[in-house]
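task queued by scheduler; priority normal; single chain, no ligands, no partner chains; default sampling; output format set to structure tokens
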Amino acid sequence: MSELTTSMSGMNALGTHDERSRQAQWQADKWMMSGALFLGSAVFGIIGLPLFLRGLALQLKAQRAGLTVRPMMVTLIGYLVAVDAALNSIGWALDMVAHHTLLARVFLMAWGNMFDAGYFWHYNELWIGGASAPGEKAWEIALLPLVFSMRIAAAIGFLQMKRWGHQWLVITCWFGVVAWTGYIANMTIFADVRYTGVVFPVIGWWLYDIFYITPFLALPYLHSVNREIFSH
């Protein structure tokens, strides 16, 4: 009888621990998801950063309290990839389908004047509208509906600790390596078009492009982590 009581007591304690862990992770994720949404919008990034850091602090607190929460590296990589894909998506979506809106004309052309003349000189003069830089529209059509949407979906599965999320994050991060390398080559080949007459030319462009190396940062971890921690 005492053994049965002890066993039931242990099961109750485990159930309580699991429930507290799930609640703590969800509480942290609510803050981090809200922050990621603002960060992914670019314009409201200053609002999103403190929200995300608040969620990160809550997860660290739960981890120190001994609760079973998501590994911190998984959290950082998952949200970083999702925000990176969202930032690329919103900017290119504006240029691709909303280039005549007031928001695109102000935001993208100001960006072009500062860093990338492809978004400033002869903007909206092509038959398809938007950026006039050679090859820019081809990259938008190839990456926006395919790679970036896949990366956001993979990041969501990865944060849920799903095996398919881990597998697809590996695939889409390698896609990102190809995209980053190709886009760098395109920018370099047409440097006379894209860097002429801007406020911050090559150095300025690298200051923001360096954040696109997310795939390079994530891949070593994704290939070395124990895949058994991800459920089917």
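post-processing summary
- Residues 10-69 form one domain.
- The mean pLDDT is 87.
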